Amino acid sequence: MISQAHKPGEGPYTTRTPRVSAALKLQRRKERDATGRFLAEGPQAVREALAAGVVLELFITAPGPAGLAELAGGGDLPPVSVVTEEAMKALAETVTPQGIVAVCEQRDRELAEVVARRPQLVAVAVDIRDPGNAGTILRTADAAGAAAVIFAGDAVDPYNGKCVRASAGSLFHVDIVRERDIDRVLNALDGMQVFATTGRGAVDLFELEPRLAEPTAWLFGGEAHGLPEAVMARAQRVRVPIYGGAESLNLAAAAAVCLYASARAQRSSPEL
Amino acid sequence: MISQAHKPGEGPYTTRTPRVSAALKLQRRKERDATGRFLAEGPQAVREALAAGVVLELFITAPGPAGLAELAGGGDLPPVSVVTEEAMKALAETVTPQGIVAVCEQRDRELAEVVARRPQLVAVAVDIRDPGNAGTILRTADAAGAAAVIFAGDAVDPYNGKCVRASAGSLFHVDIVRERDIDRVLNALDGMQVFATTGRGAVDLFELEPRLAEPTAWLFGGEAHGLPEAVMARAQRVRVPIYGGAESLNLAAAAAVCLYASARAQRSSPEL
């Protein structure tokens, strides 16, 4: 993965410095879990990470992107290492690195803490395995004004590089909860109405509208098998209406339609 | 790409039969454009393709999936070739082939023909380069009841294997138009209201609602640069509201929210 060839005069070869090596290991889940750290790349993600106060360390290329202070928005900058293009290529997981990578601190929330704040809107991703889908749900939930995204069951690591990129910074805006035990999640959501999307739901999403103004948790199931029956049984099944020949929507589209239906209902003027 | 190793006793090695070789070439755009054909794989896509009457030829593995007649829904079956697992692996572009691949006929519609039918809802994908996004837009537009998806400008080939798979059969349900000249598309849509999604739109999607019941074309721009200014200038700019910290929605999520807002408005009872 790390190309060791470099032209003379390109500057010091820093791919194997202790700092870079330690950061590189964060591309693996095991190391992320062990250290509670993860990587975020590109100016947008780094700006959001700095604003959230979770950046421990920055890597930039020389000359690197101008405006580090601008990215920090006047706040303090963490330690910055200038690295070669080659080291950046190794640190960044994209084909065309954008010249800046941050080592960030994971800040999962406790389930009880999130629920205690009485959120109006929460997304629960159950058994989501695809990091792109997980990131898209984070981004869409954030856009729709959800307070938290709960990764329940056998979920992908939300700090996976692909998920961080797909979230487009939203990982730093919403509260993230990870809880393997789905029953614990459902017990904690006791004070909210809990809806599960399914093709065979009894109630049409748009018939549900007056009720969507109430505090709501949306359960979204995994790509392959949807929501487990035992989970469905504890939620109200809702059908996103299909007006054409399609059998269903994909996960990201269904989540967008449901979360925005809630957002719209929760923000409509009372007379509607 | 084609592994030639096979165990003795696996049956005839048919990867290089003329029929298989001709089908394999359809994995390349150049060949698809030249022949007007494309590949669809898996029982769901093949069932929809058979129902649409566009299947020219089928490849199955021996023993192959049971229920070919069931897939055909009682209709006539096109010529069927039984091929080795190895040939199937080459024909299918997925990691775990589902044992059936169809050679289909492309059936693009003429822009004028589609517009003449006075559709209620149309999606226009402008400069969409990612086949997964193109397929998702097809699927979401179909689910929302759109009559057609118009691929305008410098678009991906909608008959690309990844797009066909992401469309989950919807490629066979909606009318597909391809037109490089975006001005021609906008001229043809003259009788419909044309909305363009943008983060900087003047009108909030949900404020627009009473008007969404009218015949509508939604323009969705490319992943990297959005819609060209010249196109924006000819449409009404609409903002999908962002309630949280996200800068924007991704393409698939924005399309889902907009198309379903139209679908809902077009199907609401008149007194709403």
From TrEMBL, chains A, B:
Species, as recorded: Rhizocola hellebori
Domain of life: Bacteria
Annotated Pfam families: MRM3-like_sub_bind (PF22435), SpoU_methylase (PF00588)
Family per similarity comment: Belongs to the class IV-like SAM-binding methyltransferase superfamily. RNA methyltransferase TrmH family.
Annotated GO MF terms: RNA binding; RNA methyltransferase activity
This protein's name: RNA methyltransferase
Occurrences of domain RNA 2-O ribose methyltransferase substrate binding (ranges): 39-110
SMART domains: SpoU_sub_bind
GO biological process, one term: methylation
Top-level taxonomy: Bacteria, Bacillati, Actinomycetota, Actinomycetes, Micromonosporales
GO cellular component, one term: cytoplasm
Ranges annotated as spanning the membrane: none
InterPro entries per record: Alpha/beta_knot_MTases, MRM3-like_sub_bind, Ribosomal_eL30-like_sf, rRNA_Methyltransferase, SpoU_MeTrfase, SpoU_subst-bd, tRNA_m1G_MTases_N
Keyword Cell inner membrane: no
Alphabetically ordered keywords of this record: Methyltransferase, Transferase
